């Protein structure tokens, strides 16, 4: 091996160790100061329940005893597997399977809950059941997929609209609340196919993929002659609210 190759190997090892150190600095402090709430506030060593608070600063329909959904833990599951920390992964899976429930009176963003919670559960399940993973021989028994399927069923209520485009906000326990806003964003109704499609393929239930794909196709049919999409639209009327296009949501 040449000197250049040796330097590259050494550099790669150093970067790997640095990434691992950064991950555990964040993860360990979250588990110490914020778990089971959603996110760590590092300066105050406190927490925020971002899944329900995002865009919902008045905290409507949020029970006083709501303690978050362990969002950071869910989002860390796949990293734990990739880093080979199967012991901590299985401990996290056990806690989630015993404690996490989506049957809570909390108003959440469908978009955020999809990419962060459903996506986190589905991706970690795929890694956990990979034949190359030692987890197949461990304690994992599809608990994450069970949680993901429960969440996906709750999502389906958001798609019960005249257009098939989903509401941006739903209550996890009761579905779409009375007088809920009918305004949503392009990404909020058009980017759900990856997670919900994967959920259908893993569970054999076609409803998740069908709902997300229908919304995506409806959204695409609303494009301009330049093949551009607006920014926000009404899920009941199917009309654009904001016509401007950009690289944001």
Structure summarized in a few sentences:
This protein has 249 residues and is mainly alpha-helical. It is 50% helix and 8% strand.
Strand adjacency order, main sheet = 5-6-7
Q: Largest beta sheet, briefly?
A: 3 strands, antiparallel
Structural class: mainly alpha
Radius of gyration: 20 Å
Query: What does the average pLDDT come to?
Result: 91
- Measured between the Cα atoms of the first and last residue, the distance is 48 Å
Shape label = globular
The low-pLDDT segments are none
Order of helices and strands: HEEHHHEHHEEHHHEE
Tell me what portion of residues adopts beta-strand conformation. 5-15%
Helix content: 40-55%
Number of strands: 7
The number of helices is 9
Topology:
Blueprint lengths: L2 H31 L5 E3 L4 E3 L1 H4 L17 H12 L3 H14 L7 E3 H19 L14 H14 L12 E3 L11 E3 H5 L2 H11 L3 H15 L10 E3 L5 E3 L7
Antiparallel strand pairs: 1-2, 3-4, 5-6, 6-7
Helix pairs in contact: 3-4, 3-5, 5-6, 5-8, 6-8, 8-9
GO molecular function: calcium ion binding; mannosyl-oligosaccharide 1,2-alpha-mannosidase activity
EC number: 3.2.1.-
Main location: endoplasmic reticulum
């Amino acid at each position: 091996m040449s000197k250049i190759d040796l330097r590259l190997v050494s550099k790669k090892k150093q970067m790997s160790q640095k990434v691992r150190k950064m991950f555990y600095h964040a993860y360990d402090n979250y588990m110490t100061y914020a778990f089971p709430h959603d996110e760590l506030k590092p300066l105050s060593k406190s927490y925020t329940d971002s899944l329900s608070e995002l865009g919902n600063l008045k905290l409507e329909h949020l029970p006083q005893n709501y303690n978050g959904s362990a969002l950071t833990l869910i989002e860390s599951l796949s990293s734990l597997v990739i880093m080979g920390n199967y012991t901590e992964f299985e401990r996290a899976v056990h806690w989630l399977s015993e404690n996490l429930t989506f049957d809570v009176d909390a108003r959440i963003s469908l978009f955020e809950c999809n990419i962060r919670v459903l996506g986190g559960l589905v991706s970690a399940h795929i890694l956990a059941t990979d034949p190359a993973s030692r987890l197949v021989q461990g304690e994992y028994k599809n608990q994450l997929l069970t949680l993901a399927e429960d969440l996906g069923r709750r999502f389906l209520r958001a798609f019960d609209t005249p257009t098939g485009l989903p509401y941006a906000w739903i209550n996890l326990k009761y579905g779409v609340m009375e007088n809920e806003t009918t305004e949503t964003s392009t990404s909020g109704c058009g980017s759900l196919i990856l997670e919900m499609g994967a959920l259908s393929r893993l569970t054999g239930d076609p409803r998740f993929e069908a709902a997300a794909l229908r919304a995506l196709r409806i959204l695409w049919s609303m494009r301009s002659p330049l093949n551009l999409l607006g920014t926000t639209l009404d899920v009941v009327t199917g009309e654009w609210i904001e016509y401007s296009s950009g690289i944001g949501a």
